[in-house]
């Protein structure tokens, strides 16, 4: 029954992915140039767009930041073109130079980042599987990985629905979620491992249930203490920190949920199908 | 009693560690500048250059190291202070320039290959409309010969001696010319598939007879012959003005270079010598006599540009071609803002955690607050001591580890409480709690360490910073909670007055009535 909640959340995420037409990828992945410009007077988006249209950059993405600055995002452009854009904005509206932030990523680089991120995820999953296998049992390792995939899917799903931008920081956050969620799962598994000898008398599902209950306070307390600073970062942080904290917050919630309601039931189901201990 | 001595010793050792950390934070580095800030926090420019395969150049660790040195030399000559040039795992060269307001000049100079070539100029391509530009389609250069006639003209007389025509069968552009009164096909235009360079090749043999390059002054396509000499025979390059006030870069050669230069100029008297820098013809003086001394590059727009050219020529050509993959400039205000906000979030988060732990675990909570303060001091001290740069993701990593550092305490305290509820004495409960909790903590943290090791190995700059803070945090928090807090608790357990169930935040059944 708990699986259904997870399945629904993930399905909603996948639907969101298709409705939004894919993820909102940042220039880290798509390539492009981004300038954060501070104007010398109050302007609105349409005014800036007019200037950009005049110089042939009509399809520029313009975004107002919390500090009343504007993010101007274009296709990857060279220094000369960048200077030309700044020149025009300065002449027509007036800006402070140099721009607060100025980034260019050329397409292809993102593919490299994505490739290495995938390698990092693959290697951590493999390393974790082997470690948990050695310290516990194979089924614990496999279940932990399933729980991890669950958390990553939930996080990506929320990104798809909310249409938040995915950048390098998001990838780092997702990798951290892997670590955090695992931490949670291992604590519960450790209890199950400890109590397993009693399974002969009480049955495995009872053991798992007891273990989850025994570790429940810890799971909740740790999530709360970890969420305190993360949520503060989400409300007080700079835009880049907010992005990071957003992914972490979802990951922490999903990680706690999955270790309690997702990973443990899988262990029970696994034992029901391939009994090793008394059901 | 022996145990008591051991635990006191542990506390003394930790006090010593804290003293060392405080020394680094407050005295060695002074508290305000105790932590080195990454570029994203203090402002500056980061450029990532990726080597690209061009022709026969091989990308080897040696050539990359040499390129790194040349780039450092160029940055030095630009007068930028504290540059950091590093290589990453995938052959990229990463350049960090702190506090550079206008990185454009650095960008122009750093990645320039500075490949200088001397070749004979064979002719200019012209059409009725004037010059013929070289176009580029996904990296492959081409000349658009549709709907216009394009002629190859002699550079000195201006007379046409060849014409471009499309082969009706293959669509390839052929160069036809008059040789000895007879019209002949001189060659075909072809691309080097790897570099996209536009070449003139023999029609049957495919042998490369020349290359079509852009003349930087006119913007038009020109045909040049094979490379006669390269810039590695250069001994000096200087920007300045010539006799008539034009901006030039004058170049002197090594003695070997002088000999070769004399040879090629004496063999090509009457021809124009194309001076090609990074595949652009910079100037093409007519060779009147054999020259053994200096050569000059003309046709430069500004003295700054001349200085840049002299600088890159002086520091030598890069052994590999580099492409700018990413450039990122952050102004100092943006970073400062992020730092302050991150700090506020951290402090408030810390206070909330403190209150939560005190409210929930009472005396034990107080011990963990002490542990947390020590954790932060040691963390701070290590970052300060090893001089690691704190980046934006690093802040996020630290804030996350503060929350997680409490976890080890929570696991142990819950275990202790369980034992107390079973009716065991406080002393035995503490002992049992640690014994049961230690395995969980190690297993849970080792798995997180595996993830952060993978992050470090395969992450780029900022992600690496995050991985470092995350693993550092995990190791320190394990140390403080498993060793220090353990000793503190055991000492407390030995004290009858302190070691009450209330201290543990447990109300034993019956005792509250």
What does the main sheet of chain B amount to? 11 strands, mixed
Radius of gyration of chain A: 24 Å
Helix content of chain A: over 70%
Strand and helix order of chain B: HHEHEEHEEEEEEEEEEEEEHEEEHEHHHH
Topology, number of strands of chain B: 20
Low-confidence stretches of chain B: none
The chain-level mean pLDDT of chain A equals 87
CATH class of the largest domain in chain A: Mainly Alpha
- Using the coordinates above, name the CATH class of the largest domain in chain B: Mainly Alpha
Task: Estimate nothing, just give the exact number of structural domains of chain A.
Answer: 2
Note the main sheet of chain A: 4 strands, antiparallel
Task: Let me know the number of strands of chain A.
Answer: 6
CATH architecture of the largest domain in chain B: Up-down Bundle
**End-to-end CA span of chain A:** 18 Å
- For this structure, the CATH topology of the largest domain in chain A is Multidrug efflux transporter AcrB transmembrane fold
Which band does the percent of strand residues of chain A land in? 5-15%
CATH structural fold name of the largest domain in chain B:
Multidrug efflux transporter AcrB transmembrane fold
Gyration radius from CA atoms of chain B, angstroms? 35 Å
């Amino acid at each position: 029954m708990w699986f259904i909640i997870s399945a629904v959340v993930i399905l909603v995420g996948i639907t969101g992915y298709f409705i939004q037409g894919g993820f909102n990828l940042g220039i880290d992945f798509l390539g492009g140039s981004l300038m954060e410009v501070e104007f010398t007077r109050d302007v609105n988006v349409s005014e800036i767009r007019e200037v950009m249209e005049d110089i042939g950059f009509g399809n520029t993405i313009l975004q107002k930041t919390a500090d009343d600055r504007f993010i101007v995002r274009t296709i990857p452009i060279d220094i000369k073109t960048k200077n030309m854009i700044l020149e025009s904005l300065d002449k027509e509206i007036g800006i402070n130079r140099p721009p607060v932030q100025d980034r260019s990523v050329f397409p292809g680089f993102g593919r490299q980042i994505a490739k290495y991120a995938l390698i990092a995820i693959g290697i951590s999953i493999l390393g974790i599987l082997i470690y948990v296998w050695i310290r516990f049992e194979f089924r614990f390792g496999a279940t932990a990985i399933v729980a991890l995939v669950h958390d990553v899917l939930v996080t990506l799903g929320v990104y798809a629905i909310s249409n938040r931008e995915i950048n390098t920081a998001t990838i780092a956050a997702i990798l951290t979620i892997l670590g955090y969620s695992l931490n949670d799962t291992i604590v519960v598994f450790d209890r199950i491992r400890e109590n397993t000898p009693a399974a002969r008398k009480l049955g495995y599902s009872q053991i798992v249930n007891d273990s989850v209950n025994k570790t429940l306070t810890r799971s909740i307390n740790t999530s709360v203490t970890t969420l305190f600073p993360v949520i503060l970062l989400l409300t007080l942080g700079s835009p880049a920190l907010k992005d990071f904290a957003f992914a972490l917050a979802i990951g922490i919630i999903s990680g706690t949920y999955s270790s309690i309601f997702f990973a443990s039931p899988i262990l029970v189901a696994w034992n029901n199908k391939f009994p090793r201990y008394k059901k | 009693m022996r145990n008591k001595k051991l635990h006191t010793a542990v506390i003394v050792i930790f006090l010593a560690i804290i003293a060392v950390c405080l020394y680094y934070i407050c005295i060695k580095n002074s508290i305000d500048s105790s932590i080195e800030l990454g570029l994203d926090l203090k402002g500056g420019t980061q450029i990532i250059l990726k080597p690209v395969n061009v022709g026969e150049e091989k990308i080897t660790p040696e050539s990359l190291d040499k390129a790194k040195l040349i780039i450092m030399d160029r940055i030095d000559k630009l007068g930028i202070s504290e540059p950091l040039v590093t290589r990453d795992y995938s052959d990229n060269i990463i350049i960090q320039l702190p506090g550079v307001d206008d990185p454009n000049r650095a960008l122009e100079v750093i990645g320039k290959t500075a490949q200088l070539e001397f070749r004979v100029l064979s002719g200019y391509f012209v059409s009725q409309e004037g010059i013929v530009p070289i176009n580029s389609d996904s990296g492959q250069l081409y000349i658009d010969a549709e709907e216009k006639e394009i002629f190859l003209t002699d550079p000195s007389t201006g007379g046409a001696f060849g014409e471009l025509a499309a082969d009706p069968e293959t669509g390839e552009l052929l160069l036809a010319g008059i040789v000895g009164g007879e019209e002949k096909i001189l060659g075909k235009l072809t691309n080097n598939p790897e570099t996209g360079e536009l070449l003139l090749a023999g029609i049957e043999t495919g042998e490369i007879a020349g290359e079509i390059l852009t003349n930087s002054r006119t913007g038009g396509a020109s045909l040049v012959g094979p490379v006669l000499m390269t810039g590695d025979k250069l001994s000096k390059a200087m920007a300045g003005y010539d006799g008539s006030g034009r901006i030039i870069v004058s170049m002197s050669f090594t003695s070997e270079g002088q000999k070769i230069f004399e040879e090629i100029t004496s063999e090509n008297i009457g021809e124009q010598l194309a001076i090609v820098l990074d595949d652009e013809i910079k100037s093409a003086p007519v060779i009147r006599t054999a020259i053994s001394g200096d050569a000059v590059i003309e046709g430069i727009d500004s003295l700054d540009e001349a200085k840049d050219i002299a600088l890159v020529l002086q520091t030598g050509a890069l052994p590999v071609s580099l492409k700018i993959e990413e450039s990122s400039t952050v102004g100092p205000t943006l970073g400062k803002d992020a730092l302050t906000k991150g700090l506020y979030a951290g402090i408030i988060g810390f206070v909330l955690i403190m209150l939560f732990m005190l409210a929930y675990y009472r005396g034990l909570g107080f011990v963990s607050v002490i542990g947390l303060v020590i954790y932060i001091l040691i963390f701070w001290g290590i970052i300060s001591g090893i001089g690691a740069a704190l980046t934006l993701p690093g802040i996020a990593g630290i804030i996350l580890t503060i929350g997680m550092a409490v976890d080890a305490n929570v696991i142990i305290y819950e275990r202790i409480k369980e034992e107390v509820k079973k009716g065991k004495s406080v002393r035995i409960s503490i002992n049992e709690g640690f014994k049961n909790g230690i395995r969980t903590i190690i297993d849970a943290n080792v798995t997180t360490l595996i993830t952060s090791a993978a992050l470090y190995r395969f992450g780029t700059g900022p992600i690496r910073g995050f991985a470092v803070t995350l693993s550092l945090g995990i190791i320190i928090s394990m140390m403080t909670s498993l060793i220090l807090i353990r000793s503190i608790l055991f000492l407390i357990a030995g004290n009858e007055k302190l070691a009450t169930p209330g201290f543990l935040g447990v109300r034993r059944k019956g005792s509250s009535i």
